[in-house]
Amino acid sequence: MAQLNAQQSPGEIVVTINSQERSLPAEMNLIQLIELLKLEPRYLAIELNGQVISRKLHATTRLTEGDVLEVVTLVGGG
Were 13 and a residue from 18, 61, 65, 67 both cysteine, which residue would form a disulfide, CB within 3.0 to 4.6 Å? Predict the structure, then answer.
């Protein structure tokens, strides 16, 4: 059985997003994460454990304990 760390409650997992640990509800998928972070899905890329995840797979890609994500947003301008 996995041990809970100080930041974690039952039913939660700890993942690292852009080098910062964060507690999230277990069974969260990438679309739910994008909504939680209030990001625009059309203008971002997500790398999960070293692999870029296609936008088509965001709904079916679930986060698990210890995942490492890099979320990159695109910004327009001149």
Answer: 65
CATH of span 12-73: 3.10.20.30
Q: What pLDDT, in 10s, does the model give residues 25-78?
A: 999 999 999 999 999 999 999 999 999 999 999 999 999 999 999 999 987 776
Query: Where are the chain's structural domains?
Result: 12-73
Strands 68-73 and 20-25, bridge-based pairing: unpaired
Q: What local confidence, expressed as pLDDT, does residue 46 receive?
A: 98
Check if the beta carbon of residue 21 is closer than 8 Å to that of residue 63: no
Region for residue 2 given its phi and psi (left: phi exceeds 0; alpha: psi -120 to 50; beta: otherwise): beta
- Dmax of the chain from CA atoms? 52
